[in-house]
Structures
1.
Amino acid sequence: MATYAIGDIQGCYDELMQLLDLINFSDTDHLWFAGDLVNRGQQSLEVLRFVSGLGERAQCVLGNHDLHLLALHYGATRDKRNSTLRQVLQAPDRDELMNWLRHRPLLVEDEQLGYIMTHAGIPHIWSLGKARKRAQEVERMLRSNDAGDFFNHMYGNKPDTWHNDLEGWARLRLITNYFTRMRFITPNGQLEFNGNGEAETAPEGFFPWYAVRRQSPLPRRQLFGHWAALMGSTGQPETIALDTGCVWGFSLSAFCLQSQVMTRCSCTAYQPKPHENLA
């Protein structure tokens, strides 16, 4: 039995099937998904149905695009960017899929294998214990009857720096942004939301989140997606980037947690327009 962690799929179902063939995925294997199952690619519905159908053989954390889909489902926003999620919102099993999706965690870990996974990462200002508790705060809200209210308050870039006395929607919004949107950060934990290029393009005073010395070392190797411009490379063996730009025409990657081997398949599902960035 093997466990594979797979980067951002973003609706690229055909490429996912090709990747599973490459790794000889079997009925005894397990899959971890780093979030952003949907959007931009043309087969988000097929991806959701496949991953949810794996049951306990799949672990999936929520990404920012997954949360955007849930916000559309709850009527908290309108999709002004593209129509690739329309097939999901018009599907006969929409409610079932959205209920499954909102019960996905922000953080998963395996103590025996020694890995932890979130969509964007874990900020250096939090210990693993604090990260667990803060992920659970958002997860409880998503699974409650107040989920619709959460999505009405989820969007926004403020606050951008953690304080222990944060409360209410501001607290939940910032926790969500750390786990699902983080790329560049300052040593005091301030997030920057505009940069999405290579690590070397950090704005002045900001650094790639994984390059800042942690206040409390994590006892697990970190797996994350979200940052396609890294192309799977952080330069740090304890921090493994899984998003290799599948939906941007590059590749979809699977990292075997036992062997630590990365397998990639090429992707031609989506070609970015000149004004679009890898995000």
Note: Residues 44 and 158 are 30 Å apart (CA to CA).
2.
Amino acid sequence: MAVNNSHRKNQLITYLFNYAYDHDIGYIFFESAPNNPSLSFKNEREICINMNWHHHSPEVPFTIAHEIGHIMDGRPNLKQYNCCLDYGGLDDEERDADIYGLHSSNLMQSLKE
């Protein structure tokens, strides 16, 4: 039986945007080609979420948490100008943002249980 988790997903998205706001991280929604990823601008403390991403609906909370992870990791902004050249590769910065995103999602899940 399929379970409708849209309410939980919306709660998680709200939590993540409140977290971003509390940590002085701005966010922008944009529409671009489905293969253009969301991104973050560390120096500006801003994340940009592509609302037309081809896997967008199921990945929204993780994408937001992942982009927040880029801001919160404290590393210098080395990938800013070549962010898309390496897209799809799993370098340390992307892996760490994935881990941050997973931890953020798990934290919200544990708060609801």
Note: Helices lie at 6-22, 56-72, 92-112.
3.
Amino acid sequence: MNTFGAPPSPAFGGDGLLGLSQRLPPQNPEAEQALLGALLANNKAYERVSEFLAPDHFADPVHGRIYGAIQRRIEAGQLADAVTLRAEFEHNGLLDEVGGTAYLGQLLTAMVGIINAGEYGKVIHDAWMRRQLVDLGEVIVNRAFGAEPELDGRQQLESAEQALFDLAKDNGSDGGFVHFEKALATAVQHAATAFSNPGGVSGLSTGLRDYDAKTGGLHRSDLLILAGRPAMGKTALATKIAFGAARSILRKARENDPNAIPRGGVAIFSLEMSADQLATRLLSEEARISGDRIRRGDIMQRDFDKFLEVSRELQSLPLWIDDTPAITISALRTRCRRLQRTRGLDLVVVDYLQLMRPAAGTRPESRVLEISMITQGLKAIAKELSIPVIALSQLSRQVESREDKRPQLSDLRESGSIEQDADMVMFVYRDEYYLAQRQPKELNFENPQKLHEAMEKWQKDMEGAHNKAELIIAKQRHGPTGTIKLFFEGEFTRFGDLDQTHDGGGYGD
């Protein structure tokens, strides 16, 4: 199928590419003249086109220049008519370039009523958009014929999709005000959802009790950043959340029909681990069988039977994994759109941010700018598809140089853009990991008694931190910050709720 309507063969002439190039680009000079006449006759007509029409949207550059002068004067609170524009163009030496006094007067004869000004503006804008599509089509054709040999076919496709998305994003929505009554009704609906759900969860449940209680779950259009140093368990916590969300979606779909197939699900983009590695980790967490033992085959028959049993239970979960390495933001957007259209989509998890690439064909000047483009793209996906997006992120090494290793917002790599675009920033931290590295060593103590005291204190600290983790909410645009205590099983890299009402702690799902 030919997406852009180009001819099926590269033949030139007739209806081929040469025939396309000989056509006049989409334009409507009569509509441009009529609108300019209406604006000159009554400046109030500008209110009907000011939100979406710009000088560049006019096919005739003379008309664009006249519209730009009208725009500047009206927005400066000045009168814009044939007399004031003639004086301005005479002062700038541009009167002849816009056709002189006679042409400004001629525009007045082509005027339309103020009521129709908005419709004429839309005709002009639509013609501009179709010209952009023609230009885009020419770029795509030229690239396909080898104009930019550094881009392979897949990269060209991603670049075309990105350009189409940018055109639609910048010019495809009407925008404008939403009456407070409508916004109020939506807010009341969200509150009613939270009131009717256990624990006051208005968003998508993560399966982590204390997290849902503090945040209300995962909310639509939010970009959430989950960051941490290596070995803290970022991927394990993200997959726990994805798992909990998928279970919540399945449970809700099967409230009335136990065989129902849910419309919606969770997409995990695993840029670091392959799909089967991630599946092994998920099975290890759920079956509580060490992933290392699974890989080495060091398991008993009963363990393998449990492994199979858990896999049968989990195979119906609405969970999809994409393990494409170094995926671009445009490719990720396309796949999310496709999945939402065909299966439904409620949550996206990206592991991890720094392994992504910006859109094909773009060449950011710096790594900071590149990360900024990626985070802005992820936020745009969250808003466009109305779903939460969780992106994992690395932390800089400056954490290791502090006495208190708990992360801060300034520890985010390329922190400015990430912190700015995110609706929530969370850090996962395990004190047990750092305490284990500070075990007292005999060679550092001359006095055996001091060594014994230091060892006792260290062991007490280790017992207090054993199987415990912290989820630090450093930024939450719509709620409080703070720390959530979690349970962590190192053997299975598994997170859960921390039950502090029982001796030794525990977990609950």
Note: The beta strands are 223-227, 266-270, 319-322, 347-351, 389-393, 424-429, 468-476, 482-489, 494-497.
4.
Amino acid sequence: MNAENQEIMQQIISQNQRLLQNLNTQRHCSCEVQQLVSEIIGDPVADTTEIRLPFYSDYGRNIKLGERVFINANVMMVDLGGITIEDDVLIGSGAYLISVNHQLDPHHRKELELKPVLIKKNAWIGAKATILPGVTVGENAVVAAGAVVTKDVPANTVVAGMPAKVIKKSTKKDVMLEISRLIFLNSFFIAP
């Protein structure tokens, strides 16, 4: 990366860190949250997307959010390598989505390795799950709470553990029923 690109990236990081500090330390209505996150990621956030605070990112501009996405509190997105979240995704509190790694060779340890993360439609990332660089979570897949995902997650499966392994294959109907149940339960905890 040349010096000019590095300088532009540093300016974006500085601006976004100020926006994130404002986002996470001030009181905001949902439309203000959407507006601030839109400024951070450089694209409009859909009215149907809900982001609970605090929300964290190291860069911001490489996050792409679909429609009807729910991101719970304390989610961290290390997005320099790119993070795409498709429609109808649920992300549990304290989850980490990481698209950046460092080299193993000690002489190159400070060099970054960028690999995008893709969360496909209708996936559910459980609380405190960690999605590592280069991982794709398939459509309708469920990542259990606390799982550490090091490899791609097939569509219509449930993964759990460290490292995460498939523990169940499910149908789209199973996943939709579970998501409907959670939305119903969460509706009791959302203030009008």
Note: Residues 188-192 have pLDDT under 50 and may be disordered.
